[in-house]
Structures are given as C-alpha cells and as structure tokens.
Amino acid sequence: MSMYINSVIGKALRVVSRQNCDILQRIATNSTRSMSLVSGYSFETLKVESPKDYIFHVEMNRPDKLNAMNQIFWKEMVECFQKMNSDPDCRCVVISGAGRAFTAVEIHFLCSGLDLSDAITVLSGDKSNDIGRAAFKIHETIRQYQESFTAIEKCTKPVIAAVHNACIGGGIDLITACDIRYCTSDAWFSIKEVDIGLAADVGTLQRLPKIVGNDSLVRELAYTGRKMFSDEAKQLGIVSRVFPDKETLLSGAVELAELIASKSPIAVQGTKVNLIFSRDNSVPVSLQYAATWNQAMIQSEDVMKSAMAGINKEKATFSKL
Ligand SMILES: CC/C=C\C=C\CC(=O)SCCNC(=O)CCNC(=O)[C@H](O)C(C)(C)COP(=O)(O)OP(=O)(O)OC[C@H]1O[C@@H](n2cnc3c(N)ncnc32)[C@H](O)[C@@H]1OP(=O)(O)O
C-alpha cells in the first residue's frame, strides 16, 4: 500500500515539476513569437501561421484563382499535413481559403496532370496514347490527389475547416476529410464533379455519406451538383456552426482550436485516431482497438494531471507530444 502511495506521490511531483517547466517554456515562447508565418512551413499555395500557442492556421493561398487546386497544391497539402502531424508545437489546425472563396478546384489539372483538352484527346481514343498505359498513369495521379486529403485524416491533430463563400468540387472532398466544419452564412457547397462529366474521386463520395447520414440527400446532391447553402448544410450536420462573416468565422474556429489545444494531446489525438478507426471498422473490432490503444495511453501522465487539475479546480497544462 505504501509503495503504491509513494508511486502516486512520486508521479504527482514529477507532474508538477514538468508543469512548471511547461509554464516557463510557454512564457519564453510567447515573449518571442510574433503572429507570423511558421518557420519551416514555406509553401507556394498554402500560408501557415500560428495565431495562438499550439494552433496552426493553414490558408489556401491562391486568392486570384479562388483557391483553385493546382498540381503544386496537391503536393504541398501532403507535405504540410505530414509536417504538422509530427510537429509538437501543433495541436489543432484551422484551414481556410484566402480571398473571396474557400475553394473552386482548378479543372485544368484533372486527369494525370494534363489539362482538360489533353484529357479529352486521351478519352476520345488518341491511338498514339495507349489506353492501358494512360489508365495506369491516371490511376496513379488520382491516388496521389486522394492522398492530399487523406493526409488531413492521417494527421492526428484535429482539423477545423472554416468555409466562406464557394466550396466547390474538390473543396467538398477536402472539408469532408476534416474533423469539424464551420462556415459563414454566405457559404455554398456544390458536388460539382457531375457537371464536368466525372464521378467525384478524391473523398466526397466516400466520406460525405458517413458525415450526413442521409443517403437520399447525398445522392441528390451528387447526381445534380446543385448548390446547397449554409442553412441546409447546418441542418444536415455538414457544418456544425454558421457565422455571419469571415472574420467571426475565423475567430470562432481559432477559439474552438484553443479549447481543443488546452486538453491533453494524448487524449485528443487518441480520440481522433479511434474515431477514424471506428468509422471504418465494426463496433466489436473498434472496441478491441480502443482497449489496446488505452492499455498504454491510460498510463500517460496526462491522466493523472487531468484528474488532479479536476480535483483542485485548476487548469492542467500538458507536455508537448
Ligand atoms: C483527380 C481529380 C481531383 C479532383 C477533382 C475535382 C473536381 C472538381 O472540383 S469539379 C469542380 C471544378 N470547378 C468548377 O467547376 C468551378 C469553376 N469556377 C466557377 O464556376 C466560377 O469561377 C465561380 C466559382 C462560380 C466564381 O465565379 P466568379 O465570381 O464569376 O469568378 P471568376 O471570374 O469565374 O473566377 C475568378 C478567377 O478565378 C479563376 N478560377 C475560378 N475557378 C477556377 C477553376 N476551377 N480553375 C481554374 N481557375 C479558376 C478564374 O479563371 C478567374 O481567373 P482570371 O485569371 O481572373 O480569369
């Protein structure tokens, strides 16, 4: 019994001393950090800033083209989210679009990096271009584009999509890979692929039905490409909050990110991993996975810290992960 008490006291002391180190470290960081680009995150199509401790704001940054997604974007998304995944200074991400629209995918880069007219040539049976080889190449490209949004799911830090104005085609693929979606009242959504003669192929058809839980409506939207406005998106649960304008949207998203980032990163990231696992697996298999996950994670110092903070009505701070 005394061994147990000693170990609890020992653990608690270690927790408190690390808490103090954390606080000092945070004060030091705060005094030097300016609200600017995060170093090491230099991209052409994405701007990454840190508005608050542990919060990263990724802004799609091609405002002149309404944040159309070009080849550089597809590549940079993977690099950026992989980097944030292993960055201990990042605990929660907000993604938004610069300028007047969230995103309107650039149609020139469909089909194996060719522009649309090249693609049409291939599809109309250009004999100089073997169909089998072209298909393999296109397959590879589509898989790469899929990875650009799967990278959002693979990043264990929660990602909040802040959508204003147009969210078209690939924009919906992107936001359905995010954890939480907020939008402005002027936001509208369109599964536009059908209008360019395509079945959506980078995530919408796979993820949206699991978000919405209304199969009939998903089919209606996907077969017609019709605009869905923010009130309908909210009613369906595609977005969880609607804000009057972009400014309030972004501050609402950052506020939510701050709350998430104040929790144990072990708990938050474990929750994301388990939610995604459960979405893709049966309840019994997912329960088994959760037990295996927590047989290790429950031993984290964060559990003790959280419990003590709760008892003492204090705010816990957690070491970097
Ligand atoms: C493997 C496949 C992976 C992904 C597949 C995804 C499929 C899709 O995303 S399908 C959807 C494709 N996108 C569209 O159909 C949207 C096309 N754009 C529009 O309909 C309009 O631009 C608008 C969004 C309704 C806005 O209209 P408006 O306000 O009149 O602005 P514009 O003058 O049209 O645009 C301003 C500027 O942006 C450029 N731009 C807009 N959309 C695209 C785009 N999709 N691709 C490339 N560029 C785009 C537009 O050309 C203008 O540029 P300028 O240089 O000023 O001319």
Please mark out the parts with pLDDT under 50 across 5 or more consecutive residues, or reply none: 1-34, 108-126
Total tally of structural domains: 2
Structural class: alpha/beta
H/E series, N to C?
HEEEHEEHHEEHEEHHEHEHHHH
In short:
The chain is of the alpha/beta class. It has helices at residues 2-32, 71-85, 116-123, 131-154, 170-176, 204-212, 215-224, 230-236, 246-261, 265-280, 283-297, 301-311; strands spanning 37-42, 46-52, 55-60, 92-97, 103-104, 159-163, 166-168, 180-184, 188-190, 228-229, 241-243. Pathway: Lipid metabolism; fatty acid beta-oxidation.
Give a structural overview.
GO terms for molecular function: delta(3,5)-delta(2,4)-dienoyl-CoA isomerase activity. With 321 residues, the protein is an alpha/beta fold. It folds into 2 domains: 1-32 and 263-321, Orthogonal Bundle (Lyase 2-enoyl-coa Hydratase, Chain  A, domain 2), CATH 1.10.12.10; 36-261, 2-enoyl-CoA Hydratase, Chain A, domain 1. It has helices at 2-32, 71-85, 116-123, 131-154, 170-176, 204-212, 215-224, 230-236, 246-261, 265-280, 283-297, 301-311; strands at 37-42, 46-52, 55-60, 92-97, 103-104, 159-163, 166-168, 180-184, 188-190, 228-229, 241-243. The strands form 2 sheets. The chain has a 7-stranded mixed β-sheet, with helices on both faces. It has a 4-stranded mixed β-sheet with strand order 5-7-9-10. Helix 1 packs across helix 12 and helix 2 (71-85) runs parallel beside helix 4. The model is unreliable at 1-34 and 108-126 (pLDDT under 50). Residues 65-66, 68, 104-107, 110, 142, 145, 166, 168-170, 192-193, 196, 201-202 line the site of ligand LTDHYY67.
